[in-house]
Write a structure and sequence with these properties.
Largest sheet: 4 strands, antiparallel
Strand order of the largest sheet: 1-4-2-3
Order of helices and strands: HHHEHHEEEHHHHHHEHHEEEH
Radius of gyration: 21 Å
Distance between the termini: 35 Å
Shape: globular
Strand content: 5-15%
CATH topology of the largest domain: Methane Monooxygenase Hydroxylase, Chain G, domain 1
Helix content: 40-55%
Length: about 400
């Protein structure tokens, strides 16, 4: 995070939002790799987010010079409190690792089937990426992957910046679409990940289903957070309502998860693994709850203080809204054919076609002229989006 402590409402809100997204990424990475160091960093960031929220409350109160100011700042604090609850839930995910719970090791590979995956790669000597900064590599737009941490020797650098340099021996913790992993491995001088062989081992049916539900809850929670931020940035009630749909689905999945975990008890060798699954499900559902609460002002049609939109426009990962134009490269092509994420670095959260929304569309989803895409990713990815979708019409902001 930043070296200098932020002093304004906007700066505090930007850092709080960036911290929440980093914490969710790191928390699930800690579970995937069963890594205490990553889990400890999430817990440390949770304490940092609490400090940011306390300072934000103080600065907001000092900034309110009239009843109108106070009402505007109330909305800012409402959103900040929801963001901090996302941080707390991410910390709960990490505490599953710290408490030596987790998930059965035999089922850990199932997490590869999440919409976005986390991977580790060691940079070899004389690798193409060696000696280059993250800015020079432009991994989000070149591969679709984000570097969320770098380990040099035994020290982790979490949330690395554009000026951080990649050196031989560094271990990169990356996150993004599965097809982007081998692209990064090539840059790191590492061999491609081999295809997973078919296993003849008997399936742990009940636990398999429990982990499948957990993966869906993870995807839902991340989608809900992204859509919540987008609904606020674009002041879009339809997106806010979609967050409510995701939160309702998450409630159902949590009930299903508890049922399947209880059914799995006879086949489990370690009861703590089952406790870990239940805790992970509860924390994922809490993230969805907080995302839903964040959208309350948008759903009610209440105006938010301009500082909220300003803050969301300045965060590390931004939202973009694009419309597929007739005859553009995207018109009639599937996301997989376009290699959407690896070509643009952007991840599609939702697509609106007419009055209907599709959230987290799969690679087989075929884009049509008039489709409206809500995507998240790096600033420079928006230019790549426009190249694919065609020149965008002027927005008629009311």
């Amino acid at each position: 995070m930043g070296d200098q402590p932020p002093h304004t409402v906007k700066d505090l809100l930007v850092e709080l939002k960036d911290a929440s997204e980093l914490m969710v990424d790191l928390a699930y990475a800690a579970v995937f790799f069963n890594d205490d160091k990553i889990a400890d960093e999430v817990i440390r960031l949770d304490g940092r987010s609490g400090d940011l929220l306390r300072r934000l409350r103080t600065v907001a109160m000092l900034a309110a010079r009239s009843p109108e100011d106070a009402e505007g700042m109330a909305g800012v604090l409402w959103i900040a409190d929801a963001i901090q609850r996302i941080c707390a839930a991410a910390s709960d995910v990490a505490r599953v690792v710290a408490a030596r719970l987790g998930i059965p090791d035999t089922l850990r590979p199932d997490l590869r089937h999440a919409d976005e995956m986390t991977a580790r790669v060691r940079v070899r000597d004389e690798a193409p990426a060696s000696g280059q900064t993250l800015a020079e590599l432009s991994l989000p737009t070149e591969t679709g992957m984000w570097v969320i941490a770098i380990r040099s020797d035994l020290r982790w650098e979490f949330d690395p910046g554009p000026n951080d340099t990649i050196d031989p021996g560094d271990v990169l913790l990356i996150r993004g679409p599965e097809e982007g992993v081998n692209l990064v491995r090539k840059l790191a001088g590492a061999p491609e990940v081999p295809e997973m062989p078919e296993s003849d081992a008997p399936a742990l049916s009940e636990l398999d289903r429990a982990v499948d539900i957990l993966v869906e809850m993870k995807d839902l929670s991340e989608a809900a957070v992204g859509l919540a931020y987008s609904s606020i940035l674009f002041n879009n009630r339809a997106l806010a309502a979609e967050v409510g749909v995701l939160e309702g689905r998450s409630d159902q999945l949590e009930d299903e998860l508890e049922s399947w975990v209880l059914r799995a008890a006879p086949e489990a060798r370690n009861v703590d693994e089952l406790r870990g699954l239940i805790r992970l499900g509860s924390a994922s559902e809490s993230i969805c709850d907080a995302a839903r609460d964040m959208t309350w002002y948008v759903e009610q049609g209440e105006l938010l203080h301009p500082v909220v939109q300003m803050a969301l426009e300045e965060t590390e990962e931004t939202s973009a809204e694009t419309i597929v134009q007739p005859g553009s490269p995207a018109d009639g092509k599937s996301l997989r054919e376009l290699r959407f994420e690896t070509e643009t670095g952007m991840f599609v959260l939702a697509i609106q076609r007419g009055a209907r929304w599709a959230y987290r569309p799969r690679g087989v989803f075929r884009l049509l002229a008039g489709d409206r895409l809500i995507s998240v990713g790096p600033d420079e990815g928006e230019d790549e989006l426009i190249e694919l979708c065609g020149e965008q019409p002027e927005r008629d902001d009311e």
